[in-house]
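Allow me, if you will, to draw on your knowledge of protein folds for a short while. I have a record of one protein: its chain in single-letter code and its fold written as discrete structure tokens. Could you please explain, in whatever detail you think fit, how the structure tokens follow from the sequence? The record follows directly beneath this note:
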Amino acid sequence: MVIEDDYSSRDLLVSTVVNAGYRVLPLSRGYLESRYVDVVKPFAILLDIMMPGMNGWDVLGSSSGSPSSILVVDDDPSAVEMLKSSLDIEGYNVIPAYGGQEAIDKDKAFSYSPDLIILDLMMLITSGFDVMATLRENSNTADIPIIIHTAKDMERKRFLKVM
């Protein structure tokens, strides 16, 4: 599921995810997520945080199931800490992972799995796509909802080159 109000950004994300072998439900507004998420049961949600009306944080709070533990994965420590502090205030138990491989290692070390994963796609060593593929292979983690969080330059040439 791709939730992005900017047409060109949504088109880029959709084509990239489709080229990676996934089916995509593109949405232009966050409030539409609640109509489709329980029916579609998406493997991942690429979510724009800065949207008019219902922003990405509102979508995260309104998602069904109200997760209590969230694994936050990014290779940028400041991004992890920013998300952690925002989610801590809302009462979530946040598990930080400072890179894709650390997220994979933490998932294997836990006797339980988080309720939700917030994941950066564009990490240098172990990408978000690698993390998603690894989680998908494990029956204990295959159904954990994933919200994609990225602040990287989404310029088409640079984004596709990283892929």
